[in-house]
Amino acid sequence: GNSVTQMEGPVTLSEEAFLTINCTYTATGYPSLFWYVQYPGEGLQLLLKATKADDKGSNKGFEATYRKETTSFHLEKGSVQVSDSAVYFCALSEGSARQLTFGSGTQLTVLP
Amino acid sequence: GAGVSQSPSNKVTEKGKDVELRCDPISGHTALYWYRQSLGQGLEFLIYFQGNSAPDKSGLPSDRFSAERTGGSVSTLTIQRTQQEDSAVYLCASSLASGVEKLFFGSGTQLSVL
Questions:
Q1: In a mutagenesis test of the B interface, which of A24, A100, A101 is the best target, namely the one with the most B β-carbons within 10 Å?
Q2: Candidate from A43, A97, A102 with C-beta closest to B42
Q3: φ, ψ dihedrals at A6, nearest 5°
Q4: CB burial string B9-42: b at 16+ within 10 A, e below
Q5: Do B48 and A103 touch (CB under 8 A)?
Q6: What pLDDT, in 10s, does the model give residues B56-66?
Q7: Sequence-separated (6 or more) residues with CB below 8 Å from residue B77
Q8: Could you tell me the pLDDT band of residue A97, with boundaries at 50, 70 and 90?
Q9: CB distance from A10 to chain B under 8 Å?
């Protein structure tokens, strides 16, 4: 079956530091890959996505590249802000939200 | 409403009791999903409603779990004879279409079974 493994947290960084949250996946087919973010007290929100190999998803300064050869979709940001403090979830889907598979989430805290 | 609303936000119950969790999706969204997030785990799909079609119940972990959606809008997830392993965050999401990227999530109900 499908699975997503992501970097365990919590991760604590200083403002303006570089962020990487690792995500690798196992899938039987050719999934779409997603990063979701959950800010404190809010619901999950789609942060970015990539639907095929070598695609780069980007949003709010975050980027992730779909690497089929390494089955990875690592999340990066060059300079984090305090407002980026949240839980980040890597996910994959092979077509529908019924088949959405999430990682266990990584708590990020950015200190001023 | 402006977003997906879930109630209650927190529920503490005793083992063996029944609980009902409510989800109010975004107005007009025809698709509604329930997921469960156990501590340290990713989201687990439970059930999916699409319009007037029969729901996809393939993710429900046992027959103690059931869900209904009345009038194509509000949904209630019921857990009968709760067990400690049912403790988790229950998330609801809705969308206009079935695409994953169109999902809007509620902030969840934290269920604690003592």
A1: A100
A2: A102
A3: -125, 160
A4: eebebeeeeebebebbbbeebbbbbbbbbeeeeb
A5: no
A6: 998 999 999 99
A7: B20, B21, B22, B23, B34, B46, B47, B65, B66, B67, B90, B92
A8: low
A9: no
